[in-house]
Amino acid sequence: MLKIIFNKDIEQLAGLMADYIYEHLKNGDVDKFEYHKDLNIICIDWCDTLKPDEEPSQIIICFNSKDLFFICENEQVLNTVKTTIESIKTSDNNNELILYRFFAKLLDGDTNVLEKLEDEIVALDDELLTTSNKDCAHEIIEFRRKLLSLKRYYEQLNKIFENLVENENSLIDDDALKYFRVLDSRVDRLFATVLNLQDYVTQLREAYQANVDIELNNLMKTFTIVTSIFLPLSLLAGWYGMNLKMPEFQWNYGYPIIIATSVIIVLVMVIIFKKKKWF
User: Quick check: do 2-214 and 219-275 share a fold?
Assistant: First the structure.
């Protein structure tokens, strides 16, 4: 028997499973994977990989050789499950094969999504290298948020399929187990790809922060050079700004001498900084 229902309509499953399992599902306290004597339970926080920023929706799957029940949190995920099941179901399918094809359909295209995400990260990295003043903090934060959502999604699937292939209650026959092993390997690869992309984004963030620090250091160097050049001039201005009677005030060429001294000081400081390659 195949049923796809909302979690609010769980009463439809009363009498179709053991009472203690029904009460357990009704209370909503379900682990990611649960073994029972006559039934396996999978609980997924489904994530649309095209929109990983959106809040995930819960799907609870109960199955054995005779029954396959999908309990969906909202209408979006219910329509997704129905559309997927309709596209894969045939008259000779057993529940294990339907479940395998269901997960295979959910994972279909995820590799392309991750490759596209990787291309976007590489493009941002190239732009950061070629444009030193590129402000990419917002893009880096968005990539980190998306990858964190995808990591959590594939991490739970990884645990689910590991438990499925262990088959502790022997509800899955050996022929069907090989299909779930394929899914387990696929999820492992997707999960590893997300982890690699997270490392890449971390490196990108560090490179961006290094560029910001370099620009800040260059700015501080400029301020230091300007301050160093005008510090002697400020000393002259402060010295001759004192309200004291100085003999230089009586010289006919006192004012031009001060101007020439200031120009010479500026030129000498510029030459020194040029030789030290400070600018």
Answer: yes
List the strands of the sheet with 33-35, edge to edge: 2-6, 68-72, 57-63, 40-46, 33-35
> Is 134 a residue whose pLDDT tops 70?
no
Q: Which fold has domain 219-275?
A: Methane Monooxygenase Hydroxylase; Chain G, domain 1 (1.20.58)
Place of tokens 């010479």: 264
Please state the length of the chain. 279
C-alpha 89/C-alpha 95 separation (Å) is 10
CA atoms within 13 A on the CB side of 191: 15
CA dist list (Å): 17 to 24, 37, 63, 93, 127 = 11, 11, 10, 22, 57
Please report, for the chain, the start and end positions of each structural domain, with discontinuous segments joined by +: 2-214, 219-275
Cβ atoms of residues 187 and 154 within 8 Å? yes
**Closest alpha carbon to 144 in 121, 122, 123:** 121
> Is 24 strand, coil or helix?
helix
Alpha-carbon distances of 143 from 200, 216, 245, 277, rounded to whole Å: 10, 25, 69, 39
- pLDDT tens, residue by residue, 10-51: 888 888 888 888 888 888 778 888 888 888 899 999 888 888
- pTM of the complete model beyond 0.85: no
Cα gap 167→176, rounded to integer Å: 11
Q: CATH class for domain 2-214? A: mainly alpha
Q: Is the dihedral of CA 67, 72, 75, 76 positive or negative?
A: negative
Give me the torsion for CA of 45, 47, 52, 56, rounded to 10°.
Answer: -40
Provide the angle, in degrees to the nearest 10, between the axes of the packed helices 174-240 and 137-166. Answer: 160
The HSE-up count of residue 168 (CA atoms within 13 Å, CB side) is 11
Q: Report how far residue 178's alpha carbon sits from residue 93's, in angstroms, rounded to the nearest whole number.
A: 16
